[in-house]
Amino acid sequence: MKAEKELTDYKFALDRSSIVAITDQQGIIRHVNDDFCKISKYSSEELIGQDHRIINSGYHPQSFIKNLWVTIAYGKVWRDEFCNKAKDGTIYWVDTTIVPFLNDEGKPYQYLSVQWDITEKVQYIKAIEEQNKKLHDIAWTQSHIVRAPLARMMGIVNLVKEFKMTTPEREELLTHFIDSGNELDNIIRDITEKTEPVNFNKYEIL
């Protein structure tokens, strides 16, 4: 009696704290809790009797899915992050743990899937990755632009050092040097204005 109450309490705790689904050996959904329906936007009637392909986003390669099934088919716990698609087409991410239930022969007869919504965390990471890519692209492009006036300036310095020149020639080179310096300064200002740092304060680190 005590054991049955403990099991009931465990189920109640899981249902209230996470996204839960139970499937049979073939992967057919036999139970979903309210949170599963809420995040997938399907009713329990629409989900029960289906397999998880109903929420397949197509994001993961076949090798990823195969590894999942091989792992749990051998009675081992599988855990990873999974990208799913809700009924309305929106994408959501879940941190997923799948626990096989084994019979007396050690073979799985059903699977318990416990998930937590990590959509905001994944979106935060992707936003940072995208911002970093933009910054890298800007830096790469601008570095090539900077090299042109810088090369001219170094060339002028070398000319002045290696050759004897009249005052007018030196004045002309000095003018070119100053022009190149101003051009370089403008480029650096342009980089500063276009390169906006990531505002970390608007993201909540989970």
Question: What's the layout of helices and strands?
Answer:
Elements: H1 2-17, E1 19-24, E2 29-32, H2 34-40, H3 44-47, H4 62-73, E3 78-85, E4 91-102, E5 108-117, H5 119-162, H6 167-194
Number of helices: 6
Largest sheet geometry: 5 strands, antiparallel
Reading side by side through the largest sheet, how are the strands ordered?
A: 2-1-5-4-3
Tell me what portion of residues adopts beta-strand conformation.
15-25%
**pLDDT < 50 stretches:** 197-206
Order of H and E elements? HEEHHHEEEHH
Determine the mean pLDDT: 82
Structural class: alpha+beta
Tell the overall outline. Answer: rod-shaped
The helical percent reads 40-55%
Explain this structure to me?
The protein is of the alpha+beta class and 206 residues long. It has 6 helices and 5 strands; from the N terminus they run αββαααβββαα. It has helices at 2-17, 34-40, 44-47, 62-73, 119-162, 167-194; strands at 19-24, 29-32, 78-85, 91-102, 108-117. The protein has a 5-stranded antiparallel beta sheet with strand order 2-1-5-4-3, sandwiched between helices. A hairpin with a 5-residue loop joins strand 4 and strand 5. Helix 5 (119-162) runs antiparallel to helix 6. The radius of gyration is 31 Å and the shape is rod-shaped.
